[in-house]
Amino acid sequence: MTSPAVSITSLNHAWPGAEPTLDIERFEVGAGESVFLVGPSGSGKSTLLGLIAGVTPVQSGRIEVLGEPMLAGKSQKRDAIRASRLGVIFQMFNLVPFLSAVENVLLPLQFSPERRQRLEAMGKDGPAEARRLLHELRLDDASLTKKATDLSVGQQQRVAAARALIGGPGLVIADEPTSALDRSARDSFITLLMQECSASGAALLFVSHDEALAAHFDRKVDLGEINRARVAA
Question: 212: exposed, middle or buried (C-beta count within 10 Å: 0-12, 13-18, 19+)?
Fold first, then answer.
């Protein structure tokens, strides 16, 4: 049997000096499944995504991503998994300000030989693929060579999305990825995201307050229904 893209068991997390944010007994995202995650502000959605992506170490419980355990004391191992096998669209974008749009999209290929090899196996060239993704996300030619700091917020968000998608990651994690896009750009973004994940067989875990988007996904999950910390509160 194929391992789930995400498998969580007995997860507990609390920030220093605060009440527990997460108490999740069981949660899974199937291989190739698209999941729309909702919940009110402050419910722990971004915290959960950070734990799954390996940015935040697990305090208690177990998280496996694409069959790999995200071990609390192994930050280098978590970083390697994220670089090679995950595509993450962060809320704050995390672009390198002095690099161009294309250069930012190409960064994952520099950090991960595995990602480069997957792209080569598909017969694709890195710079050409970066430009294709950016064009699909409606960035014009003039914007491709602009530094990240010279792009609008909406353009930066699309660059972050293209960076997450390049190289065929097995899991894409998206934290409010359409918040700065108008309706037309949002619809194009969702179409491209679904197409790219389907083409590579990637699972998708997508957080948004825009519940109108939920119809595009295999399943909708309310964090409040699986998070006992918030239910108890």
Answer: exposed
